[in-house]
Amino acid sequence: MRKKLIAANWKMYKTPTEAREYIAAFLPQVRDHRRDDIVLCPTFVCIPAVVAALGESSIGVGGQDVSWEKEGPYTGEVSAHMLRAVGCSHVIIGHSERRQLFGETDDAVNRKLKISLTSGLQPIVCVGEVLAEREAGLTEDVLRRQCGIAFRDISGLEAVPLVVAYEPVWAIGTGKTATPEMAADAHSVIRTEAAKAFGDQVAQNLRILYGGSVKPENATALMSQPEIDGALVGGASLDPQSFARIVKY
Ligand code: PGA
Question: Using one digit for the tens of pLDDT, what is the confidence trace for 116-154?
């Protein structure tokens, strides 16, 4: 059995003060929750506040992006080592907003994945098709390409901490969700690519999350699918009550 992981992607929302208020409201509701792993991904500037507010809790903290470089003259970038140093356990890589709005390529995702793994971060790599690709019957091709390049030159041993999030881009922030069948099909393509790259055992243990308009109202239906190993939640994670309801689906 793969333990599910429920991750909050706060995107570009919340100040450190708002983040502290969130944790004060969220923590009491999930303090005894052991069934699933929980991770919060705030903006870089909120990470120290979130780490401090979480204290000894087992909830993980993740960055929303990371540089592929170790260090150097790269204005605006944040390294994997720095994320570790401020208490991050996880990092989101290749979110569709980064791919679509900031020109992130499959090759960049691969480089970011490698440095995250060697730095001891648990990466959550996002893949998924846009609406035009789904309508053209290209979903499988897109997932194969995104995973094939992302997983390049990484050994099975190195890939053990990897998590993948299947996020159909047409479902992000739109209120639309993939049907359980669509998610199951996509997850099986991703698992096949993982098996090719990392071997069967690592692929069987790989957690594949679903993301795209996950809400308290649909969390139970999605999370009860055996192929769905958790959720990456955007909009509905911004409110502590709503995210706690998703965690406790
Ligand atoms: P959403 O975002 O839950 O608001 O659809 C998911 C994501 O972008 O990770």
Answer: 999 999 999 999 999 999 999 999 999 999 999 999 999
41 lines ligand 1 (CB under 6 A): no
Q: How far apart are CA 41 and CA 61, in angstroms?
A: 6
| 95: annotated active-site residue | yes
Are the beta carbons of 18 and 25 closer than 8 angstroms? no
Mutate-to-test residue for ligand 1 from 6, 9, 174, 247, highest number of ligand atoms within 8 A of CB = 9
Euclidean distance between CA atoms 20 and 3, whole angstroms: 27
**Model pTM?**
0.97
Cβ burial 208-242 (10 Å sphere, 16+ → b, else e) = bbbbbbbbbebbeebbeeebbbbbbbbbbbbebeb
